Amino acid sequence: MGTFLLSLLLYIDRACISAAKIPISETFGFNDRQMGWILSAFALGYALFQTPSGMLADRMGPRKILTTIVILWSTFTALTAASWNFASMLVVRFLFGASEAGAFPGISRAVYSWYPLKERGLVTGINFSGSRLGAAFALPVIAWMIHATGWRTTFVTLGLIGIVWAAFWYSWFRNAPEEHQGISEEEKAYIIKNRQQIVRTEKAGIKMSIMLKSGNMWLAMLQYFASNFTFFFTLTWLFPHLQTKYNLEIVEAGFYASAPLLGGALGNWFAGWIVDMIFKKGNWKLSRRIPAMTGFALVIIGMLGSLYMDNVNGAIIFLTVAIFGADMTLSPSWSFCVDIGRRNSGAVSGTMNMAGNLGSFITALAFPYLNAWTGSEEPFFYTGAALAFIAIISWGFMHPDRPILNP
């Protein structure tokens, strides 16, 4: 429950900038390309600090690390309201992204210690569904808050909520079931018996050079880049794109933009269920490959299909298919990182997420710049479909049973 709520809060704070795009632009006179840099500043900070924060989670444990990063990102969420020009907004959003970077690597490290291997897919899917539900909830509600109280007050309010969560997490969570006094001895024994066994000779703390010698690592990074390229569109340009193209009111645009995110939550649950179902039938490799490859196929269908829709309802249906598919790739991707990372799953998942958020960084810039250069939105959607095809090929060569061993 704690990690689900963390994921929920993470994306409420992250999606707020999309809903506030137009009032922020009006306040400072930003054009779309300037807003593209502001949106991408978050993704760049988030990407660059993934691996270091994952390594810290492996060494220090997710209790302290997640508490610290939630306090930091909540502070920078609130400080967004204090921005006074383009440069200050860039710096604050970069630091906000850097502060959020340890969230999912820290969650992965907690999953390794707390959950049996056969339940890993569904648990990962549920955790990520929280992020989609958070963003889906945020878009219409945050749009209403911005309309009612202003964008600056909205950012400050969200920052205060994060501080409250951090206090709850530190008081309630422990790094391993062996350290938690609030669970029964029977439950504790079940978790320890059924989780992935720790290799005692393997050290926690791995060098980047060791990870990058692994073909599994490079393929995980490539396919996650493709996944994030598609998904990050929903957190950045989908809301203002719908509002402008279909002449929607701010709250109306928020409701339409939330639909693909709800589809993403369903995609996470569905893929998590498939991952565990196939694994329990004895095929570890296919339990990761089938849901991921199916998801990327749906991305292709959704991204290309949306181009042929001339009304908002049709476009949203196909984009929901695309995001459902993109989020089907998350449970197998993060389960795969825990599979091959083991005691270093924070560092491995952080490195994959770093590559994925370089995709997010490019998405935030690609949409406005491709539109400006070509006079059309179509090249962006064709690019997303092409990356999804490459990701399908990549999964055919990924092996969860080949760990990255730390000498």
Describe it for me?
By secondary structure, this protein is an all-alpha fold. The chain has one domain (2-395): Up-down Bundle (Growth Hormone, Chain: A), CATH 1.20.1250.20. Helix content is 80%, strand content 0%. Helix 8 packs antiparallel against helix 14. It is globular, with a radius of gyration of 20 Å. The two termini are 35 Å apart. The model has no long low-confidence stretch (mean pLDDT 83).
Please estimate the helix content: over 70%
The number of helical runs is 19
The CATH topology assignment is Growth Hormone, Chain: A
Computed CA radius of gyration, to the nearest angstrom: 20 Å
In terms of quaternary structure, what is this?
single chain
Q: What top-tier CATH class fits best?
A: Mainly Alpha
Any chance you could write out the topology, listing elements then pairs?
Layout: H1 2-19, H2 21-28, H3 32-48, H4 50-60, H5 62-79, H6 86-100, H7 103-114, H8 120-149, H9 151-172, H10 185-194, H11 208-211, H12 215-236, H13 238-245, H14 250-280, H15 284-306, H16 312-328, H17 330-341, H18 345-374, H19 378-395
Helix pairs in contact: 1-8, 1-9, 3-6, 3-18, 4-5, 4-7, 4-18, 5-6, 5-7, 5-9, 7-17, 7-18, 8-9, 8-14, 8-17, 12-16, 12-17, 12-18, 12-19, 13-14, 14-15, 14-16, 15-16, 15-17, 15-19, 17-18
Overview features:
407 residues; mainly alpha; Growth Hormone, Chain: A
